[in-house]
Amino acid sequence: MSSRPTVLLIGDLAHTNKEWESLGSKYTLLEFRKGTREQFLENCRNGTYAEVRGCYRSNVSTSITGPFDKELVAALPESWKFIAHNGAGYDNIDVDACSARKIA
Known about the structure:
It is a single chain. The protein is an alpha/beta fold. It has one domain (6-100): NAD(P)-binding Rossmann-like Domain (Rossmann fold), CATH 3.40.50. The chain contains five helices and four strands. The chain has helices at 17-22, 37-45, 62-65, 70-75, 95-100; strands at residues 6-10, 28-32, 52-58, 82-86. The radius of gyration is 13 Å and the shape is globular. It starts with 5 loop residues before the first strand and ends with a helix. The mean pLDDT is 95.
């Protein structure tokens, strides 16, 4: 178990890769830049993301994981506490499912 919080990048970054990498001094960084919803769900279930505290995603990352709907939110590990979403609105995130899990 790392002494630093673990955060996950879902999708790609356009202009902030250096800034993302600089976060490695304070956080353990994981990435899921490409893949499928099924792969993401399997990673949630098989322990790959067992220590993830939160993620950064955008509307574009929906093409990778699909929406953060009830099924996906239910698969997130207990350690998951936040979703940082870059985009307008919450159409791709089931806020009720997140609230029930105390995920901000």
